[in-house]
Amino acid sequence: MNKHAVILASQSPRRKMLLAHLIDDFTVQAADIDESVLDNETPSEYVSRLSLEKAQHIFKNNPDAIVVGSDTSVVINDCILGKPADLQDCINILSLLSGKQHQVVTAFTVMNKVKMITKVVVTHVLFKTLTQDEIIKYWHTGEPQDKAGSYAIQGIGGKFVKTINGSVSSVVGLPLVEIEQALKEVME
Ligand SMILES: Cc1cn([C@H]2C[C@H](O)[C@@H](COP(=O)(O)OP(=O)(O)OP(=O)(O)O)O2)c(=O)[nH]c1=O
Asked: Any catalytic annotation for residue 39?
């Protein structure tokens, strides 16, 4: 599919694994950018901006490449939940998600020197009710540490999920249907 060099602007092993479902040949470069939320920024605006900044950060040194940047946040009551800093943060985050529906909001940017496409994909996830003991035990598996919202649907965290409405690949880090379409458009 790709006759142009494709670079994934990410340090995430999940995004690398997902993009490999679409493209045989690509390289990875982590885009180290400031991920602070701006005043009055909505969750969709936030993840869109970060996906664009990650892509642009890598594109500026690779102007002949197609660059893919992405960002994922877990959102409840319009509150953006990032990765947990420590056990207490994980308890706070998973207690908020317990027994409720939240959104996983992923944005991606696919760009080359002629086109730039940014899209947001929202997936609704309903959690069962969690006990504090369950949350602490989960923390000690090591899984929540580098995950937005302190869980991984593709791992042990899958046992907390009652229903999901949307894109599973988007929750894990890259919405594959939409990315495939965007790559086609950029490669046209
Ligand atoms: C909710 C959820 C998140 N995640 C992951 C996806 C992302 O890798 C991570 C969200 O953090 P991000 O900050 O979006 O991405 P990242 O730091 O891992 O990588 P980079 O910024 O370099 O692209 O959480 C899961 O793997 N499973 C899940 O169920």
From this structure: no
Q: State the Cα–Cα distance between residues 5 and 62, nearest whole angstrom.
A: 9
Contacts of 147 (CB under 8 A, 6+ apart): 83, 157
State the distance from the centre of ligand 1 to the C-alpha of 164, rounded, in angstroms. Answer: 17
pTM for the structure as a whole: 0.95
Cα–Cα distance for residue pair 60/19, rounded to 1 Å = 21
ipTM over 0.90: yes
Kindly report, residue by residue over 93-150, the tens digit of the pLDDT: 999 999 999 999 999 999 999 999 999 999 999 999 999 999 999 999 999 999 999 9
**Nearest CA among 135, 123, 139 for reference residue 160:** 135
Pairing of strands 116-127, 161-165: antiparallel
Which one of 57, 72, 106 would you pick to mutate in the ligand 1 pocket, going by the greatest count of ligand atoms within 8 A of its CB?
A: 72
Domains of the chain: 6-187 (3.90.950.10)
For atom 9 of ligand 1, the residue with the nearest CA is 147
